[in-house]
Design a protein that fits this description.
The chain is of the alpha/beta class. The protein is 45% helix and 8% strand. A 6-stranded mixed beta sheet has the order 1-6-5-2-4-3, with helices on both faces.
């Protein structure tokens, strides 16, 4: 799959290259940097790192992986969060851009990257995640590479309330209540049971709430700091025209979507799953490549489905196509039925995808973050 979120120790990833959040000087510091040096072999990696010298902020260099499972290490240098008004976001976006350039130049086909700047650099997790998703998505629109966003602990992605507002309440209202009705029947009066379940969900959410990390101005190392412009290789960090990142996902109007007409139903009656996919794509003006990218599928898996080598997809892939094609709920149900699936009120994966469809929010990367955070299989993960 082109993009996947995994919970793992990045030093154990078996990929062509991992990304290290590096010290600008030929030394190693706290966090991932120390873990990478120890796993690769401190003396060997430090010796090669000294040959490179100082790395400018927002820039990246590549070294061998030495004792790591990965062949290479791409070292990138970020900056501390100082409130958001000192060009911090531009520097982190520049980090992602330079990492991808170095990876392409060195023929990297699989890359594991941490959530840059979210640890000791103190970026609010929501902002760090928004930057990562937008930069990865922009890169993958024009490039083929397996990219793994690696998180180490559960707190790194306890973001559903911060990023998606009422998603937990939506799941609670539509999943817990329906599953209780299905398994246990009447029991408590419906409204009383709903209030108890909501209170339980809110207690769970508050228990895992994130605390944003802040740094004092004295500890901030900014792009204007002359001590950080010493790299003989780079000079000043270039400015990048980047869209402002916000801490909350833009929520679209939840106005009811148009129902399908009888003519639409009859017209599509005899179409197979992939025939219906291409019919929807033609209606919306999407090319095959756009559908493949928007569904987070690699070329091989998409080609197998297109050519009929694989008759029907997994449910996760079927849902990925529904998101890629920007289908409404009726259209999604119709498409799923062609592969023998249906949306279930007892499936949290289904309800999370349904939540985004009802919001008309079709960014598959953001949907996958919500699925990952809730412990559900992400879309496009099972390709065939």
């Amino acid at each position: 799959m082109p993009f996947q979120i995994v919970r793992n120790d990045i030093t154990k990833m078996r990929v062509d290259a991992i990304v290290n959040t590096a010290n600008p000087l030929p030394l190693y510091g706290d966090g991932i940097d120390t873990a990478v040096y120890e796993a690769a072999g401190v003396e060997k990696l430090l010796s090669e790192r000294k040959k490179i010298g100082v790395i400018g902020r927002g820039r990246s260099v590549i070294t061998k992986g030495f004792d790591l499972p990965a062949k290479y290490i791409i070292h990138t240098v970020g900056t501390r969060w100082c409130g958001g008004d000192e060009g911090e976001e531009e520097i982190i976006r520049s980090c992602y851009g330079s990492v991808f350039r170095v990876a392409v130049e060195n023929g990297i086909e699989s890359l594991a990257i941490p959530l840059l700047a979210s640890g000791s650099y103190g970026f609010p997790k929501g902002i760090a995640l928004r930057i990562a998703l937008s930069e990865i998505e922009a890169f993958l629109k024009d490039n083929d590479m397996e990219i793994y966003l690696v998180v180490f602990d559960e707190k790194s992605f306890a973001l559903s309330t911060e990023l998606y507002g009422d998603i937990d309440e939506y799941i609670n209202d539509n999943y817990v209540e329906e599953k209780t009705d299905l398994e246990y029947g009447g029991g408590r009066p419906r409204e009383k049971r709903r209030n108890l379940l909501r209170r339980s969900a809110k207690n769970r959410a508050s228990f895992g709430a994130l605390e944003e990390e802040y740094f004092t101005s004295e500890s901030c190392m900014l792009m204007s700091d002359s001590s950080m412009d010493l790299s003989p290789m780079t000079g000043a960090v270039p400015k990048m025209d980047a869209a402002p990142v916000t801490g909350a996902a833009p929520m679209m109007s939840a106005a009811p979507m148009a129902k399908k007409s009888l003519e639409d139903v009859v017209k599509n009656l005899d179409k197979t799953f992939m025939e219906l996919v291409f019919s929807f794509a033609d209606e919306r003006g999407f090319t095959d490549l756009e559908v493949q990218k928007r569904a987070n599928l690699n070329r091989k898996a998409f080609s197998k489905l297109k050519c009929g080598t694989t008759k029907n997809p997994s449910k996760s892939t079927a849902l990925a196509f529904a998101v890629a094609l920007k289908l409404n709920l009726d259209e999604t149900k119709d498409l799923l039925s062609r592969a023998g699936f249906a949306l279930s009120p007892c499936s949290r994966q289904d309800l999370i995808v349904q939540y985004f469809i009802e919001k008309e929010a079709y960014d598959i990367y953001e949907i996958n973050v919500a699925l990952f955070e809730h412990g559900e299989q992400t879309l496009g993960e099972v390709l065939v």
